[in-house]
Inverse folding.
């Protein structure tokens, strides 16, 4: 992908800002009809982390307490219930994992990413010649051809540096071959779709792990506006040892009059 430096710059800040605000939604989403260059940071974060094209799942790691060991089976929020045979006691140092799954092939997600780069670089206050340079850098991303592929990205935040290191090692050592039995995209039209290509975080320009799936099945798109939900699923992630799944509802995935995923 061209403009790799553009993609990397500020990506870590986007992830951290976005996940901290992932639970906050606007009451009125009419602003999405405006050009993405008019979006403010709050609006960008919503599209990029808490929208029809991006969902977050939170988990707690295992903790050993005076009453045994407890494990969180995963929930939609960090305060999800804890279950375990031993009734473990939670402490303040419990490792927490936050995963955000995005349909990066969807136009609004890519526009949100570009707009966050603009905000980080104070694009709105730049002279026209410098704006043009940034526009040229982002052009290939905004107008990339995804007519044959669905691109899913997965990024994560971990509150413990050792657990983060282990998580990075796990994702960066996986391959398409090692993941093609436990990383799936389920389509209500095509069923379980095979993983075409996997790019680990260290190769994906700061966007997290990337999973590439086919967009066409028997000559038809794998998702339609009136079809059922599409699900991304990955199992046995290091440290969490659980299955992460995220559903995307096509009924909510129309952007400026166009069905986008």
């Amino acid at each position: 992908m061209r403009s790799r430096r553009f993609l990397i710059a500020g990506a870590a800040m986007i992830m951290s800002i976005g996940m901290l605000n992932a639970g906050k939604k606007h009451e009125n989403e009419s602003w999405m009809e405006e050009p993405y260059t008019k979006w403010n940071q709050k609006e960008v974060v919503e599209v990029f982390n808490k929208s029809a094209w991006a969902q977050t799942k939170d988990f707690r790691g295992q903790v050993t307490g005076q009453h045994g060991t407890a494990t969180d089976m995963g929930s939609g929020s960090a305060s999800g219930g804890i279950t375990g045979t031993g009734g473990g006691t939670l402490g303040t140092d419990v490792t927490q994992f936050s995963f955000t799954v995005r349909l990066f092939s969807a136009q609004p997600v890519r526009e949100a990413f570009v707009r966050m780069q603009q905000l980080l670089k104070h694009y709105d206050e730049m002279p026209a010649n410098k704006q043009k340079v940034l526009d040229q850098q982002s052009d290939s991303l905004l107008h990339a051809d995804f007519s044959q592929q669905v691109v899913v990205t997965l990024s994560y935040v971990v509150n413990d540096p050792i657990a983060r290191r282990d998580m990075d090692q796990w994702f960066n050592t996986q391959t398409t071959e090692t993941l093609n039995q436990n990383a799936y995209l389920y389509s209500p039209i095509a069923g379980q779709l095979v993983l075409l290509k996997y790019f680990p975080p260290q190769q994906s320009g700061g966007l997290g792990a990337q999973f590439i799936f086919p967009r066409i099945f028997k000559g038809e798109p794998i998702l339609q506006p009136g079809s059922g939900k599409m699900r991304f699923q990955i199992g046995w992630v290091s440290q969490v040892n659980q299955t992460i799944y995220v559903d995307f509802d096509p009924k909510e995935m129309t952007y400026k009059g166009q069905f986008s995923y």
